[in-house]
Each structure stands twice: as structure tokens, then as C-alpha cells.
Amino acid sequence: MNTLAHFWTTKAFLPAMRAAGAGHVVVVASVAGLIGSANLIDYSASKFAAVGFAESLRNELYADAATSGKVGCSLVCPAHIKTALFKGFRQPLIRSLEPAEVAEGIVRAVEQRIPMLVLPRVIGATLVTKALFPSALTDWINTWAGTNQAMSKHDSSHADKGLKSML
């Protein structure tokens, strides 16, 4: 659903935006779509797909003379948000986000036509380094941030169990 929802929603609303010569598509992915997370293989993969969808859509809208500068696209990649989905989840070094904080970020991304917003901002700085050292940095970030341990300790029936769910 994390992947197909973007296709179906955009297919439903983009034609009207193009016809009106205005509009903005917001794709909400996750930091897990930028930096693969242990014990979240299916979730990370679906969010990586959402990131690719947003990037491709943004480039297509820009290249299309009918929509260039008129219809925008923003990708929003929040870290953990305090919601019922991950009740009890804790990350040792990266603070959890309040839902209102993420909503404010989305509004800002639309108003300012920000192509990509990563929340909290401190995570965005690691993406530059990841481009230079992809595997090593991803492994280090997951260990440093405690994501590997946090997700393995978080028992949720709707969260992926990593490789265990595939075996």
C-alpha cells in the first residue's frame, strides 16, 4: 500500500491539476526510504519506492511544458512519528516527531515548493555522506542511532520482523 497509494492518488488528481495549471502533489515516505532500516525490510523497500516515485514525478512535471512551474511535487521523509502504529517505540539518539510538527512541515513544503523535506533536519545532513559511502554509512547510522536494536525490541504485530518474516 505504501507504494500503490501514490500511483492511484496521483492518477486520480493529477489530470485536474494539469487542466487547472496549478496544484501540488505531496508524497509522504520516510527516512526508512532513504536509509534502509534493519528489521523493516518490507517497510523500507516500500518507502524507497515512494522516494523514487516522487523524484520521477517531480522530474516529469518539470520536463512537461504544460506543468513546469505550475504543478509541484514535494517528498516528505519524516523519522519516527509518535502515533499509535509504533506505540512504545523508542530511538535512543533521534527524537520522535509530533504529528503536528510533521503536518506543519508538509504545509511548509507545499507553500515554499520544497522538493524534499527530511525531518528532523539533522538526518538530512547524513544523506550527503551516504552518497559517498552508501553501505558503510547506512550500517553505521543504523548502529549509531540504535535503529537495529530499537526495532528488534519493539514488538508490534503490524511491524515487519525483517528476515524472519521472509524465512
Explain the overall architecture.
With 167 residues, the chain is mainly alpha-helical. It has one domain (4-161): NAD(P)-binding Rossmann-like Domain (Rossmann fold), CATH 3.40.50.720. Helices cover 50% and strands 11% of the residues. The protein has six helices and three strands. A three-stranded parallel sheet has the order 1-2-3, with helices on both faces. Strand 2 (71-78), helix 3 and strand 3 form a beta-alpha-beta unit. The chain starts with a helix and ends in a 14-residue tail after the last helix. The model has no long low-confidence stretch (mean pLDDT 83).
Task: Please write out the topology.
Layout: H1 4-20, E1 23-28, H2 41-63, E2 71-78, H3 99-111, E3 116-119, H4 121-132, H5 134-144, H6 147-153
Parallel strand pairs: 1-2, 2-3
Helix pairs in contact: 4-5
Question: Top keywords for this entry?
Answer:
167 residues; mainly alpha; Rossmann fold; three-stranded parallel β-sheet; 6 helices; globular
Could you provide a short overview of the structure?
This protein is mainly alpha-helical. Helix content is 50%, strand content 11%.
